[in-house]
Amino acid sequence: MEHPISVLKYSGSLEALAKDVGEMRYDSVAEFITSLADEVVRQAEADRAGERVQLASKLEETARKLYEARDEMQKVWRICKPYMK
Q1: 2 in a domain, yes or no?
Q2: Cα–Cα distance for residue pair 25/84, rounded to 1 Å
Q3: Is residue 5 part of a domain?
């Protein structure tokens, strides 16, 4: 399987994508990060099954950090939520 260098369903640059995601409401950003972490876990599982242990381990570590980032973004959302319309 070939890995693309851009998001096929998104016509903007990666920088624009990051900005667009970053401008979303923080609870939605947390949900996006969760989905990204889940996808990284899926890839780690496939690599582990293919006996690519070193790659799988790094992907698992990355997913853990993404889940931590999600947890922090959820804290940000809890701070902002009372002030949102």
Answers
A1: no
A2: 9
A3: no
pTM for the whole structure: 0.91
Q: Is residue 9 part of a domain?
A: no
Number of domains in the chain: 1
- In degrees and rounded to multiples of 5, residue 50 shows phi and psi of -85, 10
Given a cut of 70, the residues of the chain with pLDDT beneath it are: 1
The terminus-to-terminus CA distance of the chain in angstroms comes to 44
Burial 17-48 (b: 16+ CB within 10 A, else e): eeeeeeeeebbebbbebbebbeebbebbeebe
pLDDT for residue 39: 98
